[in-house]
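Quick one from the shared queue. A colleague (R.T.) flagged Putative regulatory protein FmdB zinc ribbon domain-containing protein as missing a structural entry in our internal table.

Convert sequence to C-alpha coordinates.
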Amino acid sequence: MPIREYAAVDPKKSCRHCKTGFEEMETMDAEAKTACPRCGEKIRRQLSAPSVGASQTGLHDRAKNAGFTTYEKLGKGEYEKKY
Protein backbone atom coordinates (compact mmCIF):
# COMPACT_ATOMS: atom_id res chain seq x y z
CA MET A 1 0.00 0.00 0.00
CA PRO A 2 1.36 3.44 -0.87
CA ILE A 3 2.04 6.13 1.68
CA ARG A 4 0.33 9.37 0.68
CA GLU A 5 1.29 12.81 1.96
CA TYR A 6 -1.23 15.52 2.81
CA ALA A 7 -0.95 19.15 3.94
CA ALA A 8 -3.33 21.97 4.82
CA VAL A 9 -4.69 24.19 2.07
CA ASP A 10 -4.61 27.21 4.43
CA PRO A 11 -1.96 26.75 7.16
CA LYS A 12 -3.38 29.72 9.14
CA LYS A 13 -6.64 27.87 9.84
CA SER A 14 -5.18 24.41 10.40
CA CYS A 15 -4.02 22.37 13.37
CA ARG A 16 -0.39 21.39 13.94
CA HIS A 17 -1.07 17.96 12.41
CA CYS A 18 -2.04 19.21 8.95
CA LYS A 19 -0.08 22.49 9.02
CA THR A 20 3.24 20.63 8.88
CA GLY A 21 1.85 17.81 6.74
CA PHE A 22 1.18 14.17 7.55
CA GLU A 23 1.34 10.75 5.92
CA GLU A 24 -1.41 8.15 5.50
CA MET A 25 -1.07 4.57 4.31
CA GLU A 26 -3.88 3.98 1.81
CA THR A 27 -4.92 1.46 -0.79
CA MET A 28 -4.20 2.28 -4.44
CA ASP A 29 -7.88 2.85 -5.21
CA ALA A 30 -8.62 5.02 -2.16
CA GLU A 31 -10.07 8.47 -2.82
CA ALA A 32 -7.86 11.40 -1.82
CA LYS A 33 -8.76 12.82 1.59
CA THR A 34 -10.21 16.35 1.54
CA ALA A 35 -10.35 17.15 5.27
CA CYS A 36 -7.89 16.79 8.13
CA PRO A 37 -8.86 13.83 10.35
CA ARG A 38 -8.09 15.90 13.49
CA CYS A 39 -9.43 19.42 12.85
CA GLY A 40 -11.60 19.04 9.74
CA GLU A 41 -9.86 21.81 7.74
CA LYS A 42 -9.34 21.40 3.99
CA ILE A 43 -6.24 19.46 2.96
CA ARG A 44 -4.70 18.44 -0.35
CA ARG A 45 -2.51 15.58 -1.37
CA GLN A 46 1.13 16.52 -1.90
CA LEU A 47 3.26 15.37 -4.79
CA SER A 48 6.18 13.36 -3.45
CA ALA A 49 9.09 11.46 -4.92
CA PRO A 50 8.98 7.67 -4.84
CA SER A 51 11.38 5.84 -2.60
CA VAL A 52 14.03 4.23 -4.77
CA GLY A 53 17.08 2.63 -3.26
CA ALA A 54 19.62 -0.09 -3.64
CA SER A 55 18.70 -3.54 -2.48
CA GLN A 56 20.15 -4.53 0.86
CA THR A 57 19.29 -8.21 0.44
CA GLY A 58 22.66 -9.46 -0.84
CA LEU A 59 21.37 -10.08 -4.35
CA HIS A 60 24.85 -10.12 -5.89
CA ASP A 61 26.15 -12.62 -3.33
CA ARG A 62 23.18 -14.93 -3.85
CA ALA A 63 23.50 -14.70 -7.65
CA LYS A 64 27.23 -15.50 -7.46
CA ASN A 65 26.59 -18.48 -5.16
CA ALA A 66 23.90 -19.76 -7.54
CA GLY A 67 26.37 -19.76 -10.44
CA PHE A 68 25.24 -16.64 -12.31
CA THR A 69 27.74 -14.39 -14.11
CA THR A 70 27.81 -10.60 -13.93
CA TYR A 71 29.50 -8.24 -16.37
CA GLU A 72 30.40 -4.58 -15.90
CA LYS A 73 30.32 -2.22 -18.88
CA LEU A 74 33.69 -0.52 -19.44
CA GLY A 75 32.94 1.28 -22.69
CA LYS A 76 31.12 0.94 -25.97
CA GLY A 77 30.98 -2.80 -26.62
CA GLU A 78 33.53 -3.52 -23.85
CA TYR A 79 32.60 -5.55 -20.79
CA GLU A 80 34.55 -7.04 -17.91
CA LYS A 81 33.48 -10.22 -16.14
CA LYS A 82 32.98 -9.55 -12.43
CA TYR A 83 32.16 -13.15 -11.41
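Residues 8 and 20 are 8 Å apart (CA to CA).
The two ends are 37 Å apart (CA to CA).
Added to the table.
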